[in-house]
Specification:
Keywords: Cell membrane, Chaperone, Membrane, Protein transport, Transmembrane, Transmembrane helix, Transport. GO terms for molecular function: membrane insertase activity. The protein is of the alpha+beta class. It is 39% helix and 23% strand. The chain has helices spanning 12-40, 51-57, 124-130, 141-149, 218-222, 331-336, 355-371, 376-407, 409-418, 427-442, 452-467, 493-508, 516-535, 539-560, 563-581, and strands at 84-88, 92-97, 102-112, 118-120, 135-138, 153-154, 158-161, 164-172, 175-183, 188-197, 200-201, 204-208, 225-230, 233-238, 246-249, 254-258, 262-268, 274-284, 298-299, 302-303, 305-315, 319-328.
Amino acid sequence: MPEYTNPNQTGGGQDSRLFTVMILVMFAAIFGYQWWQLKHTPPPEPQHATPAAQSQSASSAAATQGAPTGPATVAEVKATGESTTVVENELYRITFSNHGAQVTSWVLKKYKDGEGHPLDLVHDEAAKIYGYPMSLYTYDATLTQAISQALYVPSATGTLQAPATLSFEYAAGNVTVKKTFSFGADYVVHADTLVTRGGSPVRALLSWPMGLGDMEGTSSFASSQIDTAYKNNDDHVAFKKVTGGATLNGPFDYAGTSDQYFAAIFMPDQPTDATVVTFHDMVDAAQFTKGSRLRQFVTNDKPAKLPMLGAAVGSLSGHNEERVFVGPKAMTVLASVTTATGTSLKSVLDFGFFGPIGKYLFVALHFVQEHVVSNWGWAIILFTLFINIVLLPLRIQSMRSALKMQRIQPELDKIKAKYKNPGPTDPKAAEMNAEIMDYQKSQGVSMFGGCIPSLIQLPLLFAFFTMMTRVVELRQAHWYWLHDLSAADPYHILPIFMVLTSFLVQFYTPSPGVDPQQQRMMAFMMPAFSGWMTWNYASGLALYWNTGNLVMILMQLGINYSSLGKEMKKLAADRAARKSAGPKVIQGKR
């Protein structure tokens, strides 16, 4: 929202100090929030640990599974060559390879990548190194490698239309593997997998080991996290805090990995028996070819280290039965998917520190977009107008409070003169402030009356600030020259306009109780700050902020020409005249 300051507060030195405190609180909130973000997403540190390497480090755990490695053999089941099977519905197109019985492509039909192609959530470049989705992770590196490279016998090849079932089988030596996948009309796939060795189940977890394919900017990598939940307790662990190869024991309603807009989430059929292994690998962008999407992160021959998170989820028993959600973190979509205990996936969408406010802001914005105007840009504009209309009575009340303060200002000046304007450390300052507050109370004046709109609007601004880059609905949403409201304005038109509208807000809003030097500082500092805030941030925020500024300017002009505004102007002029008529002090020469 546009209103940062308490522009209508009056009351001389004491109110100037109050104004200064408000500004300091505002900046403390902004930088405190940035510190909170950095704490949860600090700069990455190199970690090169592939799932195979993680398996090796934990290979000793195989002994604890009680899985025999005896010489018992089984009838061999192998394919003679590679084949693919495509399963699709209206939402996705999934390509399975019998090489490892894993997924090589998971296309979401309703979403596009940065180049306008259908979005593939399999990050093929990383998957070639770290593993493909629906591969199996065991605590034995040799076994993991063997079953990931084996040629399975599929139950079908070609193209299947959901609802459908697809299974893969493999057997060699004393090892058998069977994977069965069931597909419906939504984003959820049911998986049933079992690995045996010597006739006994092996703890083999179904995995998504290599991040998501929509990662095309640094913010996508920085927002990578591991999501877990059981009943009403959800946890979102930022990439820096994820330990590669760590085992987390349940219960879990769901567990998986996500980034800004998409997620791969596993939902065990038996939450109390669930276990999770987390993957954390640092991708060196320089290792990829020049045509690779990851090469964009190589600048001046200095490649970035990019985090790739993954997760493997399965049962302690070794027989995994779970559902897998792979899709957008859209609020309505997540709400429609329920876990085995009946809770939904809504908590996968994390709105951050101002979560409760951001969530309901988006619910209201989505209502406008769905029932009033279909374009998200216009929905932001109408929503901002609505918020300002709702807050108009508070703004008028703030003006009235400021007017009351101006009316008693002469008496307040007398009190200050009686105490000879003591400094803040002077013991008399406390006595003076107490007398001022007593007098204000007797006159029905609250020194905080003019702060209410700012106190309400600042949390709204910060919540909107966070929400703009968390909701997939605004990803690639168009509005005139803006092709993505969740990305920065490519021509910086809105940030430049932001500087102008912020200056006009300061110019037209009377601040008679604020020190002139502070007024001049804020008249230039706040516009520069708002322009800087929106320069490289989501253009939807700049659209929201500019709209609020324009509405505020029009409202303030109306108030300035009302009887309320005219009286405030007259009282301010009278006070200025009294000050200018006071005795002048001439400094003598030494």
